[in-house]
Amino acid sequence: MNVAVIPARGGSKRIPRKNIREFCGRPMIAWSIEAAVKSGCFSRIIVSTDDAEIADVARQCGAKAPFIRPAELSDDHTGTIPVIRHAVEWFIRQGERPDHACCIYATAPFITPSDIRRGLDILTETGSEYAFSVTSYPFPIQRAIRITPQGRTEMFNPEQFNTRSQDLEEAFHDAGQFYWGQARAWLAEKMIFSPESAPVLLPRHQVQDIDTMEDWERAELMFEAWKKTI
């Protein structure tokens, strides 16, 4: 049994009501729910939220919201893993024991059904604890600079100043779309970024973190252009 859990807390600060704010004509969370449904991977698709309005929108978009997440798992400091563990434990209490659970972020409009299916394939074929979406950095991280308190610049890795970009190791980061995991891994709260996890590589044009209004506006522009190509 495979389940999808979409965390959607109501207390977004930088973009109020971010999870259900209209994004390209639909509530933001609708894009994640639609991809989960169309993937055909899941016996159950639920939204874990502490907010009644988000729960109502989620139901209208085709997901279930069978419980209200407790307050101790709904503050600014609660991580993803405890939230998914709580959901898996809820399924077990209902007499349904998932084999795999996929955390899908509510603010991931670029997620696709095919990438969700690919993530499940990678998880099962590799025997990993987790398989999650990643993408490459557009610039070598070894040549990153910081701005000092004095308003000057310095390299994080000054020994790499004369190294050609093409000679530096490519680096990747979390794409912030989905995390497939063995149910036992979620229950044990195992770390996701570890050698026990497998990457699901996404192209950079399909990834945009959305934390500020500038991010949001950029994402809408990218999304409209991307939709014309698929």
Please, could you describe this protein's structure?
This protein has 230 residues and is α/β, with parallel strands linked by helices. The protein has a single domain, classed as Spore Coat Polysaccharide Biosynthesis Protein SpsA, Chain A, CATH 3.90.550.10. 30% of the residues lie in helices and 21% in strands. The chain has helices at residues 28-39, 52-60, 80-93, 113-126, 183-187, 213-227; strands at 2-7, 22-23, 26-27, 44-48, 100-104, 130-136, 145-147, 153-155, 172-182, 197-201. A six-stranded mixed beta sheet has the order 4-1-5-9-6-10, sandwiched between helices. A two-stranded antiparallel sheet has the order 2-3. Strands 7-8 form a two-stranded antiparallel ribbon. A hairpin with a 5-residue loop joins strand 7 (145-147) and strand 8. The longest helix is centred in the last third of the chain and has 15 residues, at 213-227. The model has no long low-confidence stretch (mean pLDDT 95). One of its GO terms (molecular function) is nucleotidyltransferase activity. It comes from Geomobilimonas luticola. Its EC number is 2.7.7.81. This is Pseudaminic acid cytidylyltransferase. It is an enzyme of class 2 (transferase).
